[in-house]
């Protein structure tokens, strides 16, 4: 099975392509608010994945060493979600709220799809 860092690198690379498509959509389509929301949400989603990978590695080390782990960064990731909503509300004329929340979940959806494809190929 792939390590967390390899999975994260693959997802991050894929997210850069998706973000590039969102930027094109923001600049070319008549829906810049929707694409701005997807961009903001996706950036925070990548940040959340980074937090999760970092905390999972810390958790793995702690289990190996036999020590305790405080948390997996749930509070930080929740605060990041709140920040996305706050930014979308604050700049409501430029950022669509629902698309920002959808953008926040895109990396998790990609992770799910990537793992399903991986297991279908290797089993």
Quick take:
With 123 residues, the chain is mainly α. It has 4 helices and no strands. The model has no long low-confidence stretch (mean pLDDT 92).
Principal-axes geometry comes out as flat
Biggest β-sheet strands, sense, barrel = none
Mean pLDDT: 92
Number of domains: 1
Structural class category = mainly alpha
In DSSP terms (H or I, runs of 4 or more residues), the helix count works out at: 4
Protein name: ATP synthase subunit
Subcellular location: Cell membrane
Membrane topology: Multi-pass membrane protein
InterPro entries: ATP_synth_I, ATP_synth_I_Bacilli
Q: Which labels suit this protein?
A:
123 residues, mainly alpha, 83% helix, flat
Q: Can you describe what's shown?
A:
With 123 residues, the chain is an all-alpha fold. It has one domain. It has helices at 4-28, 32-65, 74-90, 97-122. Helix 1 (4-28) crosses helix 4 (97-122). The chain crosses the membrane at residues 12-28, 34-53, 74-92, 98-118.
């Amino acid at each position: 099975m792939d390590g967390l860092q390899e999975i994260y690198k693959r997802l991050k690379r894929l997210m850069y392509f998706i973000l590039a498509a969102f930027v094109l959509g923001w600049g070319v389509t008549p829906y810049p608010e929707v694409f701005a929301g997807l961009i903001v949400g996706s950036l925070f989603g990548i940040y959340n994945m980074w937090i999760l990978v970092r905390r999972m590695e810390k958790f793995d080390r702690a289990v190996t060493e036999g020590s305790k782990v405080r948390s997996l960064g749930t509070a930080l990731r929740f605060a990041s979600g709140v920040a996305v909503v706050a930014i979308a509300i604050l700049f409501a004329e430029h950022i669509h709220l629902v698309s920002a929340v959808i953008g926040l979940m895109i990396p998790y959806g990609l992770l799910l799809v990537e793992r399903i494809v991986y297991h279908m190929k290797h089993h």
